[in-house]
Design goal:
The complex is a heterodimer of chains A (598) and B (295). Chain A has nine helices and 30 strands. In chain A, strands 16-15-17-18-22-21-20-19 form an eight-stranded mixed sheet, covered by helices on one side. A five-stranded mixed sheet of chain A has the order 23-30-29-25-26, with no helix packed on it. In chain A, strands 5-4-6-7 form a four-stranded parallel sheet. In chain A, strand 4, helix 5 and strand 5 form a beta-alpha-beta unit. In chain A, helix 3 runs antiparallel to helix 9 and helix 5 runs antiparallel to helix 6. Chain B is an alpha/beta fold and 295 residues long. Chain B contains nine helices and ten strands. In chain B, helix 3 crosses helix 9. The longest helix of chain B has 24 residues. Chain B is elongated. The N terminus of chain B is likely disordered. The chains are: A alpha/beta (598), B alpha/beta (295). At the A-B interface, strand 2 and helix 2 of A face strand 8, strand 9 and helix 8 of B. Strand 2 of chain A pairs parallel with strand 8 of chain B.
């Protein structure tokens, strides 16, 4: 027998003290209520007569003492939390991991879900274990992880907190050496399981169609025009007829709905590029439906395009056909072209675009500059000797920055760039560079400016499809329009401090702040609006591609596990000891009141 | 004790006057009274004849007998004298038990008997005792003494241990005239109730034992773990008052009462057992008469 709560010497001491206390109290003469009687003459005769009449009479006090001693020792032992392997089995340490991949939400033939089955299996594993068996319960999304515990309430609470999500999946970082590892999974998630892990499978074949990929693509040469590029996957074994519906808010019509029926073979994908009429601005949502679809969360994808605003732009250039053309083609731009010599700095415009020119004094409006000469108001110092950029082109760029959204800089060739020494800070960032040479610098202070250290005629940037997008992004960024944030299902991070998050229908979603941003849980694809004061950010949450294959088995070859039968002593011994002590106390109470014991 | 000095109402006293304490034997008294004695004298009841002797009173010669027998015979009459009645009242602390207390009840009974005795010109001595004789009220005679008796009884208080043998030893050593010895007690004598009674018996007194019991003696209402305290000695005993224990006690108590009754029966002593809950008038007017203690 082992003791979980106390060391053996502590148990011995506890038992000795308990027994001593009980015996001392038992023999301590408690003063009973005094009753005067005429004489003890006859009482003494009665008592003498009774005391020697039967063995039981003589044993009554001994039985009482033994009962009291037994009750006290049972309680003392219960405090020590004894464990007897012969009764409850040897204590085990089990790392129980539940797969919380999104495919666990797939509906099963009985109308439940794989997740429901997984939870029930985990609960049965825990309930059927010995009282001293300790469990560490964790999920694969890193959301829930308990300590190694025997506390069933903690484990139940952890089970309640788990749910399938689109979060990144990984086997939890827990110690598994010398521990039993059980993974409850449908086997579709690619998990790097420990060698000793056994899998309790809740897999059941299911049909599923999904939007595997969803993207808004700016149409080349048509600023403000977009196409929807999406991939529809059929993870079922058989061909499926899939109804595709796209809802988009555009400037030519609200909720312009596009419908299309796709016939997709079993375990196949179809990619479609669908043009959106007019200039989309607002929610764009794609939805697929098919008969027998077991997983709903991957049937929808959303995105958001902010409404376009008209802007007045003054282009200060000695002559740049690329810039003039791209700005003139933008329908929201009212363009004025000014020679550098004619620049006054007091034009009533929204933004400036300076081509190989920069005024001595910083204009009060935001400005986009291409290879400007050195100026004090521009960060960094102008190096007198221009340096050549790496022949391999742009080596790094920040796709998350608003001005580089949808802008590909792969294979961009730049013949020459001005080398400027920049010290990046909270407002000035190098968003694209070739090795140590900054190529694009964005200043988020007031007023904003964006500087390209290269000239358009010395690179192929102006001839690439992403150039109009870059220009559009810059103008949008200048205008202060918040670009939508795109995230995946799960815990969503919004770059807005202390924001209130709501769905489109106004339902507020619980959110928590974290270091200048806000976190909230998005269990399913959808469009959310994060607001903090006047600032507002739209958050398009979608399921990442590749998570929808409900039939793709990756955990094959693992030792499988059957649910063990429950043990007849499923709780810890101390609970039975306490119950026995309680029963004996009740017996003692009963016998005492019938004067069977003293 | 604080009883009312009157103790009884007039009606009850009138009833008492018709009663007479019965003695199984005739004892010699000191004064003329209503009690027959062995002595021959000037009473009204004819007792015997004897031969005339010179100097005898001619008025007592039975002339009819002389006619029939031709002998001078003298008519003898019984001498009616008073009867010594000794009322021994147990005043030990155990008599303070019961409602009313056994002592109060004993005093009431003693008062009634006193009145009966005084009304018939008997000499009544009241002797309270514990482990010795207390202050006595000696040889009262005539109804006029009844208030003195009442006062004496009302001043009695319980206290001390019971030792009837020691107390009666003192009494017997005084060579008191033989008479009726009425012992009113609960007989809870640690030294044995029979010791004292035997002493009186050996002194040739006509003994009446009035056994006063209280309901708390015979049917104690006890429950749970208790420490019993002996009212006389102060000694204690822990008990668990179970129904079986109480039943055993009742059995022992009944045995004890029967033991006292058996003892009295064996030695032809008068014995009456009465509970304090029984009105003492009933005891005096009915129970005593049924037991031929009074007529």
């Amino acid at each position: 027998m082992t003791f979980l709560a106390l060391a053996p010497w502590q148990v011995g001491l506890l038992i000795a003290l308990t027994a001593g206390a009980v015996i001392a109290l038992f023999f301590l003469k408690l003063r009973h209520p005094r009753v005067a009687v005429a004489s003890l003459l006859l009482w003494e005769r009665v008592l003498q007569d009774r005391e020697y009449r039967s063995l039981l009479e003589r044993l009554r006090r001994l039985i009482s003492l033994l009962l009291a001693l037994t009750i006290a020792l049972l309680i003392a032992l219960a405090i020590a939390r004894p464990e007897a392997g012969a009764l409850t089995g040897e204590p085990r340490e089990v790392v129980l991991v539940l797969d919380t991949s999104i495919t666990m939400a797939a509906r099963t033939a009985d109308g439940q879900s794989r997740w429901r089955h997984a939870r029930e299996a985990a609960a049965r594993l825990i309930d059927g274990a010995g009282g001293a068996d300790r469990f560490l319960l964790a999920d694969t999304s890193g959301r829930v992880e308990t300590a190694m515990t025997t506390d069933r309430a903690v484990l139940d609470a952890a089970l309640d907190a788990m749910r399938p999500s689109g979060d990144r999946l990984a086997f939890p970082q827990v110690e598994v050496d010398g521990r039993e590892v059980i993974v409850v999974s449908d086997g579709t998630a690619a998990l790097d399981l420990p060698r000793t892990a056994r899998v309790l499978s809740v897999f059941e074949p299911a049909d599923n169609v999904a939007i595997a990929d969803f993207e808004l693509v700016a149409r080349t040469g048509e600023p403000g025009a977009y196409d929807v590029r999406l991939t529809v996957a059929n993870h079922s074994r058989d061909l499926k007829e899939i109804e595709l519906v796209i809802d988009a808010e555009t400037d030519v019509g609200i909720d312009a709905t596009l419908r299309e029926t796709l016939r997709v073979a079993g375990r196949d994908v179809v990619t479609r590029t669908i043009p959106l009429n007019g200039a989309p601005n607002g929610l764009i949502r794609a939805r697929v439906t098919a008969e027998g679809d077991a997983l709903a969360v991957d049937d929808e994808a959303v995105d958001y395009l902010p409404p376009l605003q008209d802007v007045e732009v003054t282009l200060v250039t000695a002559g740049n056909e690329f810039l003039e053309t791209v700005l003139m083609l933008d329908p929201r731009v009212d363009l004025e072209v000014v020679h550098p010599d004619a620049y006054r700095g007091d034009e009533e415009v929204d933004f400036y675009v300076f081509d190989e020119f920069a005024p001595q004094a910083q204009p009060t409006q935001p400005a986009l500059l291409f290879r400007p000469p050195g100026r004090a108001w521009l960060a960094g110092s102008d190096a007198s000797q221009p340096l050549r950029a790496s022949e391999t082109g742009v080596t790094r760029w920040d796709e998350t920055h608003p001005i580089l959204q949808f802008v590909s800089m792969i294979d961009l060739q730049i013949a020459d760039a001005r080398h400027l020494e920049f010290r990046t800070d909270a407002t000035t960032r190098v968003v694209a560079a070739a090795d140590q040479t900054p190529l694009i610098v964005a200043h988020a202070g007031v007023p904003k400016w964006v500087m390209a250290t290269f000239a358009l005629d010395q690179s192929d940037f102006a001839m690439r499809p992403s150039f109009p997008m870059f220009m559009q992004n810059v103008l949008t960024w200048f205008s202060g329009e918040a670009r939508p944030v795109r995230r995946v299902v799960g815990t969503v991070d919004v770059p807005l401090a202390d924001a209130t998050v709501a769905t489109l229908d106004g339902t507020v979603v619980p959110a928590r702040p974290r270091l200048g941003s806000t976190l909230f849980e998005a269990p399913a694809p959808g469009l959310y609006v994060a607001s903090a004061g006047a600032a507002q950010v739209h958050v398009a949450v979608n399921l990442p591609g590749g998570l929808s294959d409900v039939n793709g088995m990756t955990l094959t070859g693992r030792e499988s596990l059957e649910l063990p039968p429950g043990r007849w002593l499923s709780s810890e011994l101390w609970t039975y000891l306490l119950a026995l002590a309680l029963a004996l106390a009740a017996l003692e109470w009963w016998t005492y009141h019938r004067r069977l014991t003293v | 004790m604080g009883h009312d000095e009157t103790l009884f109402d007039g009606e009850f006293l009138k009833k008492l006057e018709y009663l007479h304490i019965v003695s199984k034997r005739a004892f010699a008294g000191q004064f003329r009274a209503e009690r027959r004695t062995r002595q021959r004298g000037s009473g009204l009841e004819f007792a015997d004849h004897r031969a005339y002797a010179p100097g005898d009173d001619f008025r007592r010669v039975d002339w009819r007998a002389y006619q029939r027998l031709n002998k001078l015979l003298l008519r003898l009459f019984e001498e009616e004298q008073d009867l010594p009645i000794y009322l021994f009242i147990d005043c030990s602390r155990s008599m303070a038990d019961g409602r009313p207390t056994k002592l109060a009840y004993a005093c009431q009974v003693a008062a009634a008997l006193c009145y009966i005795g005084l009304a018939h010109l008997d000499r009544v001595t009241l002797a309270p005792y514990t482990d010795q004789l207390g202050r006595e009220l000696l040889s009262q005679r005539g109804k006029g003494q009844i208030f003195k008796v009442f006062r004496f009884l009302s001043e009695l208080a319980s206290g001390g241990h019971t030792d009837s043998k020691a107390a009666f030893e003192i009494f017997c050593q005084r060579k008191q005239p033989r008479g009726i010895a009425v012992v009113i007690s609960d007989f809870l004598d640690p030294h044995g109730f029979d010791q004292g009674l035997n002493l009186l018996r050996f002194s040739h007194h006509d003994i009446f034992a009035i056994h006063v019991v209280s309901r708390s003696d015979s049917e104690p209402v006890l429950r749970g773990d208790l420490q019993l305290v002996d009212a006389e000695t102060g000694s204690t005993h822990d008990i668990a008052a179970t129904p079986s224990l109480l039943a055993a006690y009742r059995r022992i108590y009944t045995d004890f009462c029967e033991e006292v009754a058996r003892f009295c029966s064996r030695y032809r002593l008068g014995y009456v057992r009465t509970e304090t809950e029984v009105p003492f008038e009933d005891v005096v007017l009915q129970v005593f008469r049924q037991n031929r203690f009074l007529r």
